[in-house]
Amino acid sequence: MKRRLLLVSNSTLHGAGGYLGHCQQQIQEFFGEQVKRILFVPYALHDRDSYAKTAREKLQSLGYEVDSIHEAVDPVEAVRKAQGIFIGGGNTFRLLKTLYDHKLVSEIQKRVLQDGIPYMGSSAGTNVATVSINTTNDMPIVYPPTLTAMGLVPFNINPHYLDTNPDSKHMGETREQRIRQYHEEPDAPSVLGLREGSMLLVEGNRATLLGSTKARLFSRGKPATEHEPGSDLSFLLTDGV
C-alpha cells in the first residue's frame, strides 16, 4: 500500500509558535521537496476564506504553495490534480458532510491509497481519515449521510485526548469513559487517543508516533496502553481492532 499520512491531534499548541508551529518540522519532512503545491480543505470551519488565508500563510513560510479546494470550480478535479492534501480542523460533522456533498470521499481515498499522494490531517481532518467519526469530540451541528469516514487507516483516533484530572470537581463522564462506552458496541475498532502535541506518521504498513506527548490506545476488551513518542504502532494497521 502506498499511503503516506501525517495525522496530527491539534493545529495549535500553547507556547509552540502559533498555527502548526509545533509540527512544522514534521510537515516539511512529510511533504518533502517533491511536493510544490498542497491542496487545503477548509470545510470544517464556516469562514473558509479566513481559514485558507491562515493555512496559506503558514505553508508558504515552509516553502509550499497552497490551493484551497473551496476556491476551485470543480472540487473533484482539484483532488485529482493535487500533489498533496491537507484537511484542517474544526467541526468533524460539518467536514464529513461537505466531503460527501461534493463527492470527495472516494476521490481522496483513491488518490491516497492508490496513487500514494501525501495526506495530512489535523483534528477533524485526522478524524475523517479513520474508520468513522464516532469518536470525535464535536457536536453534530449538521448531519452527514453516514458516520463512516474515509478509512485510510483501519482504526479510529480521538484527537485532543484529555486525561482525567484527579483534582477536578467535574462529575461528568471522562474521555476514557466515553471511549469505553464506544467499545461496548460490537466490532468497534481500536481508538488511539492523541494528546495535544502528538501525531501519527503512516508510511505504507508502518505507523510511528511522533511529537512531544504520549498517546493512549484503547482496544475493545483489553486494558488501555500508553505509548511514548517514537513508538512503533504498525500493528494497528494490520490488526485494526
Report the sheet with the most strands, covering strand number, pairing sense and barrel closure.
Answer: 7 strands, mixed
Poorly predicted runs of 5 or more residues: none
Order of helices and strands: EHEHEHEHHEHEHEEEEEH
Shape: globular
What is the strand content?
15-25%
Q: Kindly state the number of beta strands.
A: 11
Distance between the termini: 19 Å
Q: How many whole angstroms does the radius of gyration measure?
A: 17 Å
Query: What percentage of residues falls in helices of 4 or more residues?
Result: 25-40%
> pLDDT average, as an integer?
94
Helices, by number, come to: 8
- Biggest sheet strand line-up: 3-2-4-5-1-8-9
Structural class: alpha/beta
Keywords:
seven-stranded mixed β-sheet; 8 helices; alpha/beta; 241 residues; four-stranded mixed β-sheet; single chain
Could you describe the 3D structure shown?
This protein is 27% helix and 20% strand. The chain is α/β, with parallel strands linked by helices. The longest helix is centred in the first third of the chain and has 14 residues. The protein is built from eight helices and eleven strands. The strands form two sheets. Strands 3-2-4-5-1-8-9 form a seven-stranded mixed sheet. A four-stranded mixed sheet has the order 6-7-10-11. Helix 7 links the parallel strand 6 and strand 7. The protein is globular.
